[in-house]
Amino acid sequence: HAQAVTKWNKRNLSWRVRTFPRESHLGHDTVRALMYYALKVWSDITPLNFHEVAGNNADIQIDFSKTDHDDGYPFDGPGGTVAHAFFPGEHHTAGDTHFDDDEYWTFRSSDAHGMDLFAVAVHEFGHAIGLTHISAIESIMRPYYQGPVGDPLKYDLPYEDKVRIWQLYGVRESVSPTAKPEISKTDDHPVLPDLPENRSTVPLRRDVPNRCNTHFDAVAQIRGEAFFFKGKYFWRLTRNKHLVSLQPAQIHRFWRGLPLNLDSVDAVYERTHDHKIVFFKGNRYWVFKDNNVEEGYPRPISDFGLPPGGIDAAFSWAQNDKTYFFKDHLYWCYDDHQHRMDPGYPSEAMLWKGVPSRLDDATRWSDGATYFFKGKEYWKVMDSNLEAEPGYPQSIARDWLVCGDMQADAPEPAESSRTGGRSRQGHHDESRSESEVCSCTS
Amino acid sequence: APNPTAEEISLGVDWLTKFGYLPPPDPITGQLQTQEELTKAITAMQQFGGLEATGVLDKATLKLMKTPRCSLPDLAEAESRRKR
Q: How big is the CA angle at A106 (ends A87 and A281), to the nearest 5 degrees?
């Protein structure tokens, strides 16, 4: 096998993730943490030290690029070549590492189609510090992707690779038998998100909103059930309006593919013609088939002909099979079949009399009526007419979320006071139950 | 084993050139590699990839060529010339 002829003369190398995967569910912090631990695999056993920097002068500039990205090594879409790195040297690209942004990058995932980012990063950083490909089956420097290599916090380089890198740089003091153990403070290391597959390790949720005295970000009827979204959580009601659990579920654990750093949603609705579910947040939207995001999302809401700034509410009206979007005093009427906005919109004149502007959301329901939500109240409009029913608004908490009048009437505490997980009146103990949510997609 | 198709052979030659097992065709003479060179390159790739060294583009070899991998060549150009 061939031994690299170049290596770094300096021991302290800077690195930086300049661009991130555009359509991956891995958040920026997770990508940076994985790069940190992939470099640490090499620095743990050699005298090399890696430190993250800002700006464009890092020794190891990390980019996620697609197809031809002007370095003579074009990527080729999903599969095929997945990443490369430049050997040490004087050239300004020396050490730079590129990942194919058309790959489906994963972390701690059993997805056979995914590409474990940590495993590929360890391999490429081997190149970036001077190692070439070898044929040894168990080596991390074998040219072919061999699947995930396990937990980044516990990964141990194969001995073959340790010997080769020691030949280039020698052994790190802390590794040699005579050295004192190196104490590194755990909080120096970036945190990797907890294990997505293992619920039992999820820390207790201190920031769960109290359903009985809050307003909701979005409300939607999905597959006949009602979903109330608030922050990172949602409550779910069955078709006959029974609350599945008093305890909310986490949006990210059910709706797979929303960015982990998404802290809330603006509006949600289910498309009538294909029953896909559309989530809106700011200027972006995601389309879900069942509870998995479809490829190619998020996309800009300009696809609908909506202006920047996001929307307040969205719902499909069974009456004419059109989708209505609301923002402040304006509303639009969109044809999901023709994929175009109806002429003459936005309009200021509210179609439904007695319904306020600046909605939180709106949804149809199995009784044929349409419900508009704002703050802690809701309005009901029968399909047969365009005016809110007399006697409305009514209380969301009391009529939908199994709250007693006392709970429903409690003033909504400021968000921060609730992070302690206890509302001023100490009501939440009553309204919280330890029952967990069981979720099933069909 | 069925003979590789013409398309598989040309894809195979591209792949072997891309990853350092075959020198790129001579831009001046336009001369292509000989069958002997191709056989040696395939054998080198098979040995490097841990496959049986048959010297032909058999099924296992074509499958390994389709495996996701790093873009860098496996052999430095000088190395591949010396191997040859």
A: 115
Q: What is the DSSP letter of A180?
A: P
Q: How far apart are CA A268 and CA A277, in angstroms?
A: 7
Question: For residue A70, what are the contacts with CB-CB under 8 A and spacing of at least 6?
Answer: none
**Residue B2 near chain A (CB below 8 Å):** no
Q: Which helix (H) or strand (E) holds A396?
A: helix A396-400
**Cα–Cα distance between B74 and B70 in angstroms, integer?**
9
| Beta carbons of A132 and B67 less than 8 Å apart | no
CA distance A182 to B20: 41
Cβ of B3 under 8 Å from any chain A Cβ? Answer: no
Do residues A128 and A88 touch, judged by C-beta distance below 8 A? yes
DSSP letters of chain B? -PPPPHHHHHHHHHHHHHTTSSPPP-TTT-PPPPHHHHHHHHHHHHHHTT----SS--HHHHHHHTS-EESS-SS-HHHHHHH-
Is residue A39 pLDDT above 90, yes or no? yes
Direct distance between the N- and C-terminal alpha carbons of chain A, in angstroms, rounded to an integer: 53
Question: Residues 47..76 of B with a Cβ closer than 8 Å to A: which?
Answer: 47-50, 64, 66-76
pLDDT digits (tens, 9 = 90+) for B25-66: 776 666 667 888 889 999 999 999 999 999 999 989 999 999
CA B72 to chain centre: 14
Two structure tokens written together for A228: 């109330």
Q: What's the rounded Cα separation, in Å, for the pair A1 and B75?
A: 8
